[in-house]
Every structure is written in structure tokens, then in C-alpha cells.
Amino acid sequence: MPEIDRTRAIGANVGSFDPVETARRLQPLVRAHADETERGRRLAAPVIEALHSAGLFTMGLSSALGGSETPTLQAIRAIEEVSYADGASGWNVMITFDTAIWAGFLRGASRDLVASMTKPIVTGTLSSPGRIQKADGGYRISGRWKFGSGCQNADVILVGAFLSEGSKPVLGRSGAPQMLQIALRPAEVNILDTWHVTGMRGTGSHDFTVDNLFVSAERALPLNIIEPFERGPLYAFPMLASFAVAKGGVALGIARHAIDAFKEIAHAKVPATRRSALREQPAVQIDLAHAEAIVHSARAFLHQTVEQGWQELVAGRKIPEPLRALIRLAATDCVHRCCDAVDLMYNAAAATAIHESCELERCFRDAHVVGAHIVVQSAMYEVVGRVLLDLPPETAVW
After folding, report:
1. How far apart are CA 61 and CA 67, in angstroms?
2. At residue 264, does pLDDT exceed 60?
3. In the CATH scheme, what is the homologous superfamily, with its name and number, of domain 6-103?
């Protein structure tokens, strides 16, 4: 494992930037614009400006690139606080954390593109990789990528593309098609209006295309998520594990929102067949207690494993494979357990929850979208079980 700069273990700007407190301070503004974000299928302009100005879009960006290089657990907590106000806003903060970490693996001209900007908003996707052809003096890239969360707000968009020469794919040493990574400018992509979905509508996760764009050879690099350019522990943390635990932060925020929204309903609602408020029903009390236990235990498991992994890295050691498996398990279980907690609150509120005017309705839709992401899908339980039984993970998203 490359040597880690331990001085970067507590964040680049720890004295001047508290992302968790910053996120809490912005909750009223984010909540106030949540409906606008939902209707527009992208973050409302005041939310973008506030999150950007506050530095919450650059938590994953290295200090060398102008970011705060926020430790993983602190970033998760900040993502939870934004997601408590609005799941889609929290998702966009999470995506920029993920892809800014990916930027820590860039070298050469793609890294220089990020470095040339002041606190850039970095987004990107590997979903449905495009094609990149060898050409005189560089490459030509074309394709259509899915799930471009926050692409309308981005300063830099990171993508992956399969390398071809003529009509044939170029194979790597393993015999698999070789993939390159590249940093693109927003003007180099065409965003398509495709994000018409059940939940997380405000994330603006549209498809986008690139059509026969010429790029210099220096901008396209072999896909690298193993050997970071940056030397802080944030980048030594396995990248896909970082992606997974950040999803846990989103799920925790949405579940907390659902619980608090239900408490308000339970105090005020008198069911049609009852004479007392909903909160007086024993079944409702039990469901609320179960939801609270689920969220608190999910958060504890996630935070514990992430902190254990971080301490291994700070000590100069690689995260052991069993601990890495527990980190992935904690992230996956957190997302799905939080979804269970939201379901409990949604069902306990009965017909009240089905209305778009009810906060639980959006929490329900958003929570179920988080668990659909490939790094925390329920299939990860099997992968973790394999690793804990000393078998190979047999997945590309480990």
C-alpha cells in the first residue's frame, strides 16, 4: 500500500470548517426549497449556491485541489444532516463526495482540469461506459452515460469509456476490455431530459451523451480506483467502500426525517374509527420504537466499522479483508434497515402518508431509491458472506 500522509487524517481545514455543523445550519434553507427541488428535478438554485458556498460540495476533494479533504465518518455525518432536510439534496452532496474522491486518483491533464478551478463541483458516472477510439494525437470519445446525478450543476464530469482500436476492443493484461477514465467539461457533454422517476426526483440524475469528441492523449488515463494520486487516508480507504458508506448517510437522514414527520402526525391525527390521537395506539408506539431502534443501531454499526477502518489507515496499515467486508455489510444493512424504518412510519400513518403533501410520502419514495444503487443492493449480503467465509467476492463492485 502506498505510504499515507497521516497529517491529513483529520481534514485539511479542520480548524475553519465543520461540515456537520455547517450542514445543520443549512437545514432550514434546504427544507424550504425541497418542493422546488422535487418539481424541477434538480437542486433549487438557492440550495446549490448555499451548499457550494459552504464547502459541502468539496468534502471529498483533496486539499491540493482546493477541497476540505473531510474524513470519511465526518462526511457521512454531514451527508446525513443534509439528507434529513431533503433526500435529493443529501444525495447530491453524497455524489460530489464520491466523485471528488475519484478525482484523487486522477493524474496528468485530467487532474489539471480539476486543479484549474476554484472549489469545483465534481460529478460523474461509470454507468453504461462509452467508447473511446485511438486517433492521431489522442482519442475520440462517444457514448451515453446514465445516472449523471448533479450533472446540470457540475464544473467537471468524470466518466469511464472502453478503449477501442478500429472496430475491436483493446484488451488489458487480464484479457478484459480496457477502460479509460477522463475528466470532461460540462460544455463537452449533452444532457438529456431523462430523469422521470419514482423517488430522488430532485437529484437531476439525467443521462448525458458525448458525440465524437476529440481529447488529447494526456486527458485519458487507464481506469484507476486502486492506486490514488493523493496520499491522505481519505483516498486509501477503498473507493467503492467509500461510495457505499456515503449512501448510508443519505439513508440515515431520510429515515430520521420519516420518524420525526410521523411523530408530528401521531400527535395531531385522530383516526376515523377512534376517539383518541394516533399516538395512543399501542401498535403505533411499538412501530415507532422499532423504527428508532433500527436507525440508531444502523448508524452505530456504520460509524463503528468506518472508524475502525480509518484508524487502520492512519496507523499505516491496509484495511484487513474481514473488516472491509464488515464495512460493506454495515453500509448495505444501514440502507436497507433505514428503508424498513421508513416503511414502518409510512404504514403507521396509514392513508395520511399517501398524499404528496405529506412528508412521509417523499421519504418513502426516496428511501427505496437509495437501496437500488449497485454498491448497496441486497446482493451485497451474499458477497460479504463469501468474503467472511474466505471465498473471493466475485463482483466488480468490491
Report:
1. 4
2. yes
3. Acyl-CoA dehydrogenase/oxidase, N-terminal domain (1.10.540.10)
